[in-house]
Specification:
Neuraminidase
Length: 353
C-alpha cells in the first residue's frame, strides 16, 4: 500500500475498520467518502511496524503562529487529539488550550489514535495499528514508555476506556469472531468478556460512578445501524437508550454520571447530542450541516471538545455544555481528530506499566 493511501485513514477509518466484518481487500476511502457513507465499508490495515520497544520520539513544543479565539467559559486545560500534521501517519498531539501550544507525543511509523487519560492523568490509552492487527496500548502522559496491552498479533482490539478507579480498562475485541465488549486489568491481565451477541458491540464508556458501561451496538437493527445501550459492569442488565432510526457512535459521560454525549445521525447528518442516562431528554447540541463527531467532556463538565469538518477539514472545536460558542481550537490545514481532556487533578494515582 502506498504512503498516500495510508494517509487517508482518519477517525472514521478506525470506526469502520472495527465494525467491518468481511475479509476482502477493499480500496481505502477518502475522508469525504467515508463521512458521506453511514454504512461501513471494509478498510484494510495501514502498513505499519509493530509497537516500538522504546519511547516514541518527542518533538519540541510548537507554538501556533495563528492566534485562535479564546474558547467559551474560561477555556483552560490540556487535551490530546490525533493529527496527520507530520504528513505521514495519524499521531498523537497534546494542546495547552490557554496558550494553543502543541507537543507531539508520538512519532510512529503507523497510525495511532488517542484514547482517554487515566483518572489521575498519568497514563494515556491509545489504539495502534500493527502489521496485521489493531491493538490497545498505553503510554505515560508525556508519550514515553508505550506498551501493547492486548498483545494479540492477529486480533483487532480498539476503543479503550478506563474504569473510574483506574484499575480496569474496557475495550472492543474481535477475538471471538465479532466485535464484543471486554474488560481487563490496567496491566492487560484478567481479560473478561462482557457481551455475547452475534451483532457488533463496541465503543464502551465507563460511567464516572463506576456502576454502568455505555456502548454502541446494532443488535436490534440492520447491520451497521448502531444505537446506544447501557449495561452493568458485569455485562448484565442491558438497556437500550436510543431507537433504531438513527446511527450513533462515541458515548461519553458527563462527570456527574447523569447524562451522555454522543455522535448521532438522526436525519442524515452527524451532530453531537446529549441524552439523560435513562434515555430521556435527547437534545441536539451542534445542529450544524457539517459532520460533528467524538464529543469529550472537560473535567469540570462545562465544555465539550469535538471534531468537525465545518471548515472543510477535520478540526478540534470546543463548545459550552449547552452547545453555545463553538470555537475552533486547532485551525489547521491537516486533519485533527478524537479529542480527550486530561484530568485536572492527580488524585487516586495508579501504578501500571
Amino acid at each position: 500500500m502506498s504512503a498516500n493511501v495510508k494517509r487517508t485513514i482518519p477517525l472514521m477509518a478506525l470506526l469502520l475498520f472495527i465494525v467491518a466484518c468481511t475479509t476482502t481487500t477493499p480500496t481505502a476511502l477518502s475522508t469525504e467518502q467515508i463521512v458521506s457513507s453511514p454504512v461501513a465499508p471494509t478498510l484494510v490495515h495501514p502498513t505499519a511496524i509493530p509497537l516500538p520497544t522504546k519511547a516514541p520520539t518527542l518533538v519540541p513544543t510548537e507554538i501556533q503562529t495563528t492566534t485562535a479565539p479564546q474558547p467559551p467559559i474560561g477555556g483552560s486545560g490540556m487535551l490530546v487529539f490525533g493529527s496527520n500534521k507530520d504528513g505521514n501517519y495519524m499521531n498523537i498531539y497534546m494542546m495547552d488550550i490557554s496558550t494553543k501550544s502543541l507537543t507531539q507525543l508520538t512519532n510512529n511509523d503507523s497510525t495511532t489514535f488517542p484514547g482517554p487519560f487515566s483518572p489521575d492523568g498519568s497514563k494515556l490509552l491509545f489504539t495502534g495499528f500493527g502489521l496485521t492487527n489493531s491493538y490497545v496500548g498505553m503510554m505515560n502522559a508525556d508519550g514515553s514508555n508505550p506498551v501493547d496491552l492486548t498483545k494479540e498479533a492477529q486480533i483487532d482490539d480498539a476503543f479503550p476506556g478506563w474504569s473510574p478507579d483506574g484499575k480496569q480498562i474496557a475495550f472492543t475485541s474481535r477475538r471471538d469472531g465479532n466485535n464484543e465488549i471486554y474488560t481487563m486489568n490496567a496491566d492487560g491481565t484478567g481479560i473478561k468478556r462482557l457481551t455475547d451477541n452475534p451483532a457488533d458491540d463496541f465503543a464502551p464508556a465507563w460511567s464516572p460512578d463506576g456502576t454502568k458501561i455505555a456502548f454502541v451496538s446494532d443488535r436490534d437493527n440492520p447491520t451497521g445501524v448502531n444505537n446506544l445501550y447501557l449495561m452493568k459492569v458485569d455485562g448484565t442488565g442491558i438497556v437500550r437508550l436510543t431507537n433504531g432510526n438513527e446511527i450513533d457512535y462515541g458515548p461519553t459521560w458527563t462527570p456527574d454520571a447523569n447524562q451522555i454525549a454522543f455522535r448521532g445521525d438522526v436525519d442524515g447528518n452527524a451532530d453531537i447530542y446529549l441524552i439523560n442516562a435513562d434515555g430521556t431528554g435527547k437534545v441536539n447540541l451542534t445542529n450544524n450541516p457539517a459532520s460533528d463527531w467524538a464529543p469529550a467532556w472537560s473535567p469540570d463538565g462545562k465544555l465539550i471538545a469535538f471534531q468537525t469538518n465545518r471548515d472543510g477539514n477535520w478540526e478540534i472545536y470546543v463548545m459550552g455544555f449547552d452547545g453555545s460558542q463553538p470555537t475552533n481550537l486547532t485551525q489547521s490545514s491537516f486533519d485533527d481528530q478524537m479529542p480527550y481532556w486530561k484530568p485536572s487533578t492527580s488524585r487516586n494515582r495508579i501504578s501500571v506499566p
